[in-house]
Amino acid sequence: MQLTVNGEAAEVADGATVADLVAARAPGHDRVAVARNGDVVPRSGWAQTPLAAGDAVEVLAPTAGG
Amino acid sequence: MSGDDLTIGGETFTSRLLLGTGGVPSLEALEAAVHASGTELVTVALRRVEASASGSMVQVLDRAGVRLLPNTAGCRTAREAVRTARLAREAFGTDWVKLEVIGDDVTLLPDAVELLDAAEQLVAEGFTVLAYTTDDPVLGRRLADAGCAAVMPLGSPIGSGLGIRNPHNVALLREAVQVPVVLDAGIGTASDAALAMELGCDAVLLASAVTRARDPERMALAMRRAVEGGRLARLAGRIPRRWHAEASTPFEGLPAL
After folding, report:
1. Can you give the residue range of the structural domain that contains B228?
2. What's the CA gap between B16 and B147, in Å, rounded?
3. What ipTM is given for this predicted complex?
4. Which Gene3D superfamilies does the entry link to (chain A) (predicted)?
């Protein structure tokens, strides 16, 4: 199915969850946060949160900042 | 100096220097600067994972034993800032946030209306809000009244290194609120940090002045000493300014030669 990940069109398998997306997009990162359609998806809910076609997902990680 | 701790949001700090990581040239430089600065509170940001640092930056900070202070840099509306703060809480496991809501691309000055709105929402959600703001004492009071744990006025625009352009306003803001005041943004060199403390600020937050210095580690040490020196001078009480001289050596007993 088609969705938008970090501002770009992305194709993920039907039935994929937020946890699947994080594993694919942020390997080796800890302290990752995910927003789905603007709302935070808590880490504890990643594996139980299925993605839906048309979702806008942001996968974020720490960076330097003032 | 023992017995002169800083308390923000119920947490106690020995150091009165908060360090930002923005602009840091390397992880090695960051680690050296954090150590030299003596800081206990370090700002970090969240970005899309493709643009983010690898996990090692946070590892360096964890190893240094500092507390992380996520920011909402780049947010332009209360809505964006609140959402970013929620994401930061999830990522970093802290409800502390450096609230930053920018209203202008060129100056990066805070948007007072959106800032106050975001502060009210985040305080209501249980965040410990350290609000980056202008040097306006009235806005500072409004932020403190809204429940912010600290008010953080700029000295001059972010990254400008122009120092404290309106020391009087900073001193007035210090008088206007009961919560800690942290001079945030605009520090260029050590004397700026010392001035902030002499004006009565409780702490200084700086990033670029250290991370973009030719020698970040040495500048971090300079800032540490400047903050300590300025704090001591504030507590010691400076002499009044006089228009004319006042002799320090007595005239009494002056020989006729």
Report:
1. 14-236
2. 21
3. 0.93
4. 3.10.20.30
